[in-house]
Amino acid sequence: MGLAILVLGGFRWLIGRRDLQFVRRREFLQHWKNPWELDALSVEVLSRQLFGAYLPAAVVRRVCDRSGAEVCRMLGDLADVWSLVEWDQNAQRVGWKAKAATATKRAKWNLVFWAIYFVSAFSGATLLFALIAGSNNVSISASVASSLWGIILMAVSGVALWRTDAWAAAARLGDGFLEDVNRLAVSNREDSHLGPR
User: Fold this and answer.
1) 8-38 burial by CB neighbour count: b if 16+ within 10 A, else e?
2) DSSP of 85-139, one letter per residue?
3) What is the pTM of this model?
4) Buried b (16+ CB within 10 A) or exposed e, 62-100
C-alpha cells in the first residue's frame, strides 16, 4: 500500500512538473525582450523561468548575441551544468569547479552516480519485492524495517539519477563548451571597447 501511494505521488509530481514547465515557458515568452534592454535581475529571473538555473545576466547577454537556435541550445546546456561551473565576475569568465576541473573527474563522477543509481534502485526494488512476495512469513517489525530501507534506497537512486543529469552533460560538453562561452565573452568585450571609438 505504501509503495502504491509512493508511485501515485511520483506520477502526480511528474504531471505537475510538466504543467509547471509549460507555464514557465509561456511566462518567459510573454516577458522576454532583447536581453540588452532588460535589467540584470529580469534577465536572470527570466532565464531561471525557462532553463531552471539563475544564469548571470552578463553570460545570458553574451550568449544571446548568437543566432537563435544556438542561443537556446547553449543556454540550456549551460543551465544543465551550472551546478558544476563557477562565474568569475572580475575576469568575466566561466570555469569548471575544482570537483569537475578535468575530463577524467567529470567522467568518474558521472560513472559513480550511475553506479549508485543502479545499485540502490536494484537493491531497493529487490527488498520491496521480497517483502511483498513473502509478506506472510515476516514479522511486523521486520516488515516495517524492510519497507523503510527499500524506500530509502529507492529515494537514493532517485537523487543519484537527478545528479547524473549534470555530470553526464558535463562529460558530454567538455572543456570546449566553456571555452566557446568564454570566447563569446572576449569577443563581445572587444567589440564594446571598439564601439565608442
Assistant:
1) eeeeeeeeeeeeeeeebeeebeeebeebeeb
2) EEEETTTTEEEE-GGGSSHHHHHHHHHHHHHHHHHHHHHHHHHHHHHHHTGGGS-
3) 0.66
4) bbbeeeeeeeeebbebbbbbbebbeeeeeebbbbbeeeb
- Tens digit of pLDDT for each residue in 6-57? 667 766 766 666 656 666 666 665 666 666 777 788 778 777 877 778 888 8
Q: Which amino acid is at 62?
A: R
User: How many residues are recorded in the chain?
Assistant: 197
74, 163 Cβ separation under 8 angstroms? no
